[in-house]
Write a structure and sequence with these properties.
Blueprint lengths: L6 H20 L2 H22 L4 H16 L6 H21 L1 H5 L3 H21 L3 H11 L1
Helix pairs in contact: 1-2, 2-4, 4-6, 6-7
């Protein structure tokens, strides 16, 4: 079993989650960007400090957590995290590069992006979280 994650891993994702919720509520490009940067900091911290830049290690930890929660050993969820990273980063880039195009994008695109990100947020902040973080995640999701 993995030891308690380093504070840099925990706090970068907690700050990213708060910024994610506030940015969506206020539709703030600056907060959206800052949230993404904290999230990327979380990814960096997790890979540098916990997984030593090993995809296999990240896959294994994802498999361990999934098995502990659902009884099925699969690390495939790590790929959904990689997609999340690309989606959030691309969304931030789009908003900065062509704000007019971003604002005019089809509603279904915005719904797909935020639906996926909301699903991933819920999993990270509620399903796989514990203690007070889970309760804050539930409140934010509501």
């Amino acid at each position: 079993m993995m030891t308690e994650p380093a504070p840099a891993i925990l706090w970068t994702i907690r700050i990213a989650a708060v910024l994610y919720v506030v940015a969506v509520a206020r539709r703030s490009r600056w907060l959206w960007t800052l949230g993404c940067l904290f999230y990327l900091g979380h990814v960096w911290a997790a890979f540098a400090l916990a997984h030593h830049w090993s995809h296999a290690s990240a896959w294994e930890e994802t498999a361990r957590q999934t098995e502990a929660l659902f009884g099925v050993r699969s690390g495939s969820g790590i790929w959904w995290n990689y997609v999340f990273t690309v989606v959030w980063t691309a969304d931030v880039a789009w908003w900065w590069i062509t704000p007019g195009g971003y604002d005019a994008r089809p509603r279904w695109v915005a719904m797909a992006v935020h639906g996926y990100m909301g699903f991933m947020f819920f999993n990270g902040a509620v399903v796989f979280a514990q203690g007070w973080v889970r309760w804050v995640g539930i409140a934010a999701a509501v």
